[in-house]
Design brief:
Strand content of chain B: 15-25%
Order of helices and strands of chain A: EHEHEEEHHHHHHEEHEEEEEEEHH
Number of helices of chain B: 5
Largest sheet of chain B: 5 strands, mixed
Largest sheet of chain A: 5 strands, antiparallel
Distance between the termini of chain B: 44 Å
Number of strands of chain B: 5
Helix content of chain B: 25-40%
Largest interface: A-B, 30 and 30 residues
Shape of chain A: globular
Oligomer: heterodimer
Distance between the termini of chain A: 46 Å
Strand order of the largest sheet of chain A: 4-5-10-6-7
Helix content of chain A: 25-40%
Order of helices and strands of chain B: EEHEEEHHHH
Radius of gyration of chain A: 19 Å
Strand order of the largest sheet of chain B: 2-1-5-3-4
Radius of gyration of chain B: 16 Å
């Protein structure tokens, strides 16, 4: 349970970090919070030749909110994003999901963008980014490019980032008027990886009837899975029973069984959590803040 | 292959230590093996059990999930740094003895550091908040009732302006 040997560099600017990644990208791995990477090293599941530690790049330690949404720099810790009242006002789905990320102690060190580009299928933030249609900015010595969530997640623990690229910022679109979100997951123990997790988004029309209902899933496939579930619930009142959307999700999802849960159990969780989170999102969209 | 070594300074419990370590040295191992501070316990070594929790800049973190080189220059508090200068127990330690919040003691260092920081942030926790505070720490012998009781007791014992 000790990491294998690697060489270590701690750049003091983004430019220096990009230079190091350009030099030996395929060999190198970026170390930010390390709350997923260090266990992988200790269990010898990963053995990069070099770690590029970005913990000195304080210029990436920011959380910024405006009308468009929330911008999270590569060194912003989960705990900082979770505690920021401007984030909660701009996109409440973020704190709702972040509260389910591991334990407070892990959130003190782990970074939100690091969790996204780690691309664990059981992680919360990739599903949130996917549902909201967020983006990640990748930087390299060639310049910067913006990658949409749909193009980012390539497989379990795999993204479309090139080895010479550093993810510098994640962007989560703001929650518009008459739109609500909710998040819920089920895990065997509090703080464990979820057996199934659902991030829900509902948009209402001016009569407070459902105009759009979507859900993003974690732990249901190798990458985050987003479903448009509007059809069976379109036009229903904001406080209607949305079980039909859960049933549709149960027909569209196709999870794998593993030692923690059978595929059928995961589907049952997805059906129930989908109906429940969509209903909460719809009520929030209508301005009903208190849950039933 | 000779391993690359790094000369770093760690400020542990107010004392600067200069150590030379390979980059792969976990902070937990650096504290225990290089500095001889064996109060920090190593349980699962992958961030689940919480026994190795130390404070980095006053904030609880898993020392088994940190590289020593990555926290060079940081202010670190281990369980050895919680008691007063003459060895008097901190409010959290006192509460643990009074509430029988430990049995074998293996998990205790992680609980003590976590709760010390938790009470700094929230000096008057409710029972639910106390449970949330220790949610990331595993204890396999006492059960958690007495540990939750100790969190609440420590909150009572702590002077209003306690800065430890």
């Amino acid at each position: 349970m000790k990491p294998p040997t690697f060489s270590y560099r701690r750049p003091s600017s983004v430019e220096e970090a990009l230079g190091l990644l350009a030099e030996d990208g395929p060999q190198a791995k970026v170390l930010a919070g390390g709350q997923s990477l260090i266990p992988l090293l200790s269990m010898r599941l990963a053995a990069p030749g070099r770690l590029v530690d970005i913990n000195s790049l304080t210029e990436l330690s920011y959380v910024r909110c405006d009308e468009a949404g929330v911008r999270v720099g590569a060194l912003a810790r989960h705990a900082e994003v979770l505690a920021d009242p401007a984030v909660a006002a701009c996109q409440p789905l973020l704190p709702a999901a972040l509260a389910c990320v591991a334990h407070p102690t892990i959130r003190n060190r782990g970074t939100s963008l690091g969790s996204i580009v780690h691309a664990d299928p059981a992680a919360e933030l990739p599903a949130v980014l996917s549902l909201l249609g967020g983006t990640v900015i990748a930087a390299s010595t060639d310049g910067r490019r913006t990658i949409g969530a749909a193009e980012l997640f390539a497989g379990p623990l795999e993204t479309s980032l090139r080895p010479d690229e550093l993810a510098v910022e994640a962007f989560f679109p703001a929650c518009p008027q008459l739109t609500g979100t909710a998040f819920e997951e089920v895990s065997r123990r509090h703080g464990d990886y979820a057996l199934c997790g659902v991030a829900a988004l509902v948009r209402l029309d001016d009569d407070l009837r459902i105009a759009e209902a979507r859900a993003g899933y974690l732990s249901m496939a190798g990458t985050p899975w987003v479903l448009d579930l509007t059809e069976p619930v379109r036009g229903l009142a904001y406080d209607a029973d949305l079980a039909a959307a859960g049933e549709l999700a149960g027909r569209l999802l196709d999870p794998e069984p593993d030692i923690h849960a059978t595929a059928e159990y995961r589907l049952q969780l997805a059906r129930v959590l989908t109906a429940r989170t969509l209903r909460r999102a719809a009520r929030t969209a209508a301005g009903v803040m208190h849950d039933d | 292959m000779t391993e690359e070594l790094h000369r770093i300074t760690l400020h542990v419990n107010g004392i600067p230590y200069e150590v030379t370590v390979p980059a792969r040295r976990l902070l937990s191992d650096c504290l225990r093996h290089d500095l001889g501070l064996t109060g920090t316990h190593v349980g699962c070594e992958h961030g689940v059990c919480g026994a190795c929790t130390v404070l980095v800049g006053g904030v609880p973190m898993r020392s088994c999930l940190l590289l020593a080189v990555s926290v060079a220059g940081e202010r670190i508090t281990t369980v050895e740094g919680l008691a007063g200068p003459a060895g008097e127990l901190s409010p959290v330690q006192q509460a643990f003895t009074e509430c029988h919040a430990l049995q074998c003691g293996f998990c205790t260092p992680g609980f003590l550091t976590t709760i010390t920081a938790g009470l700094q942030e929230n000096p008057r926790p409710t029972r639910d908040e106390a449970r949330e505070m220790i949610g990331g720490n595993l204890c396999r012998c006492t059960g958690y009732q007495n540990i939750v009781a100790a969190v609440l007791k420590a909150a009572e014992l702590a002077p209003e302006s306690d800065s430890r």
